[in-house]
Design a protein that fits this description.
39% strand, 3 helices, Lipocalin, alpha+beta, 188 residues
Length: 188
């Protein structure tokens, strides 16, 4: 027979699992996702991040630029240029395809964990909404708005903000950073 304390703990665990499942359950990839159409240059012009440690970096973030290069096996390399401590750095991430088009996994050397990434929405020529989910000692998610240019229409910025709020990101966790100065260096 279960004690009252054991029942309460069990109910709390069930509630937390249901809440976390609810956060990610409605994240679906773009129908008929086409990696070849998604290839090319993208700018991260919006970011929503649920990590408490993110707040101290908000004022330092700028628009990051990346390029997506599809591989024959369905994977993709993402080279991302970002300003770090007043220096422009590039990193290459290999996005591994999954059985679901538009859903990838990648290894984060920063967190030493495999994370997943879902292309939720894109029109390929103007914008893309990306959802990242990671689970380590806590569960965190991130929504990014990418554009083919550094400046997007206001209605796309609002769509991004609305999507982030619908997925429980507080207003202070959502930002649209300013453009970077010469990152990547001219010529990319």
């Amino acid at each position: 027979m279960l004690t009252s304390a054991t029942m309460k703990i069990t109910l709390v665990i069930i509630a937390v699992v249901m809440l976390l499942t609810d956060v990610c359950a409605d994240i679906q990839p773009k129908k008929n996702f086409d990696l070849n159409r998604f290839a090319g240059r993208w700018y991260r012009v919006g970011l929503a991040y649920s990590s408490p440690g993110f707040a101290k970096y908000r004022s330092k973030l700028t628009v990051a630029m990346g390029t997506v290069e599809p591989k024959e096996n369905g994977d993709a390399d993402m080279t991302l240029w970002d300003t770090q401590l007043s220096d422009c750095k590039s990193k290459v991430y290999t996005y591994r395809r999954t059985a679901v088009p538009g859903v990838f996994t990648y290894f984060s050397s920063r967190h030493n964990k495999v994370k997943d990434i879902t292309v939720v929405e894109t029109n390929y020529i103007e914008y893309a909404l990306i959802f990242k989910y990671k689970k380590f000692n806590k569960e965190y998610s991130q929504v990014s708005l990418y554009g083919r240019t550094q400046k997007l229409r206001p209605e796309l910025i609002e769509r991004f903000k609305t999507f982030a709020k619908q997925h429980r990101f507080p207003e202070e966790a959502i930002l649209t950073p300013p453009p970077a100065d010469n990152c990547p260096p001219t010529g990319y």
